[in-house]
């Protein structure tokens, strides 16, 4: 995969500052005609970003659970010049994004990970939407101390460190921010595994507790 990570994760102490920075990045890309695909985790986040872009009179395509039927069409056109696409991170899997005329010379499709996921695999899949089959592309990541992943799976001191790191230009900040994100994702993945295992155990218990055998087929 031949994409360039444009920077280490950009860190913010609050969600509002982060979304404003995401919008500024989109504006910069749009002004030069480079297409951008923004990955978010929820319908709520997609609509928050859509409202901010609409306030700047920027054209965009919004793909979330509300517009599921249009998923393939919207994703397929995400590589056209000047195209701005907001999508939940798993949207459009299996749909190729073809770069429009002149887009490779601009640097290809730029993917913005606006919210890191509970699974690092999903972040990698989203980043992989650009730079496919030898196409150029780039990725940027935005992280806030108020993001769901950070709030749910990091301790209070770790969250405080994230917020402080956003306010101060600390040495090696990008290194420990990446480490904290990986830590939060490992905890999230372990929690998801534990919940899945609990469901399986519950199913097994119900199967064994049923006071009857299923009727045999004739």
In brief, what are we looking at here?
The chain has 218 residues and is an alpha/beta fold.
Strand segment count:
7
Main pleated sheet: 7 strands, parallel
Low-confidence parts: 1-6
Mean pLDDT: 81
User: What is the overall shape?
Assistant: globular
Helix content: 40-55%
* Oligomeric state of shown chains: single chain
Strand content: 5-15%
- Give me the Rg, rounded: 20 Å
- SSE string, helices as H and strands as E: EEHEHEHEHEHEHHH
Amino-to-carboxy terminus distance: 55 Å
Treating each run of at least 4 consecutive H or I residues as one helix, how many helices? 8
Task: Give a verbal description of the structure.
With 218 residues, the protein is of the alpha/beta class. The protein contains eight helices and seven strands, in the order ββαβαβαβαβαβααα. Strands 1, 2, 3, 4, 5, 6 and 7 form a seven-stranded parallel β-sheet that branches. The longest helix has 37 residues, at 173-209. The protein is globular and about 50 Å long. The model is unreliable at 1-6 (pLDDT under 50).
List the helices and strands and how they pair.
Blueprint: E1 4-5, E2 10-12, H1 15-31, E3 36-40, H2 43-55, E4 61-63, H3 71-76, E5 84-88, H4 103-106, E6 109-113, H5 120-127, E7 137-144, H6 148-153, H7 156-167, H8 173-209
Parallel strand pairs: 1-7, 2-7, 3-5, 3-6, 4-5, 6-7
């Amino acid at each position: 995969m031949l994409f360039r990570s444009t920077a280490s994760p950009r860190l913010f102490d609050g969600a509002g500052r982060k979304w404003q920075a995401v919008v500024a990045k989109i504006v910069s890309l749009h002004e030069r005609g480079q297409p951008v695909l923004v990955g978010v985790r929820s319908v709520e986040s997609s609509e928050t970003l859509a409202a901010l872009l609409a306030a700047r009179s920027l054209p965009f395509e919004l793909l979330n659970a509300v517009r599921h039927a249009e998923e393939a069409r919207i994703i397929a056109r995400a590589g056209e010049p000047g195209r701005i696409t907001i999508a939940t991170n798993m949207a459009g899997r299996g749909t190729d994004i073809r770069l429009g005329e002149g887009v490779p010379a601009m640097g290809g499709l730029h993917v913005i990970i606006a919210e890191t996921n509970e699974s690092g695999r999903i972040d990698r899949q989203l980043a992989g939407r650009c730079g496919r089959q030898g196409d150029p592309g780039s990725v940027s990541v935005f992280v806030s101390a108020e993001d769901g992943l950070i709030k749910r799976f990091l301790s209070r001191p770790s969250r405080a460190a994230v917020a402080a790191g956003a306010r101060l230009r600390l040495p090696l900040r990008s290194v420990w921010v990446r480490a904290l994100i990986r830590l939060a994702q490992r905890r999230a993945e372990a929690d998801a595994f534990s919940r899945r295992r609990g469901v399986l155990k519950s199913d097994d218990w119900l199967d064994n507790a049923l006071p009857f055998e299923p009727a045999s087929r004739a």
